[in-house]
Write a structure and sequence with these properties.
five-stranded antiparallel beta sheet, SH3 type barrels, single chain, alpha+beta, 145 residues
Length: 145
């Protein structure tokens, strides 16, 4: 989670924000990540609540915006990498159709050989039908011929 300086907020809090003043404790199960809207509301509240005799350094605000922008881009890259990984896993499973494979049978625990006849896309990833067994995770495959 990003660190945000709240020293000039004079005790103000943003409804729905997970930002707490330094030194307070929070229940991690109740914390939510700060999204772009919450971050912008926090910056607006900082500007609104700052002490006119001791204004916030604009350099610090720019640094916070740059950090948030970098974090947002890293999250976007991570999301896209996850999509790419899923696509690659699905493609690899589809390419197994028609191939003879050896796999550890989930029902018997023994090495079994069969032909991949079908791929079903489940919520957790692709599942194969090999011979008479269905719902086989491609991770159980030990050899492809």
């Amino acid at each position: 989670m990003a660190s945000v300086n709240t020293s000039n907020m004079n005790g103000a809090t943003i409804p729905g924000s997970s930002v707490k003043k330094v030194g307070t404790t929070t229940d991690s199960s109740k914390q939510s990540s700060m999204d772009k809207d919450a971050f912008l509301k926090l910056l607006a509240a900082q500007a609104k609540m700052q002490d006119p005799m001791n204004p916030t350094d604009s350099t610090a605000q720019i640094a916070q915006l740059a950090q948030f922008s970098s974090l947002e881009q890293m999250l976007n890259v991570a999301t896209e990498m996850g999509k790419l990984r899923t696509s690659n896993t699905n493609s690899a499973a589809i390419q197994l159709v028609g191939h003879d494979v050896t796999f550890k049978s989930p029902s018997t625990g023994l090495p079994t050989t069969g032909t991949v006849s079908q791929v079903t896309m489940g919520e957790s990833g692709p599942l194969l039908t090999i011979g008479s067994e269905s719902g086989i995770d491609p991770a159980y495959i030990t050899q492809v011929r």
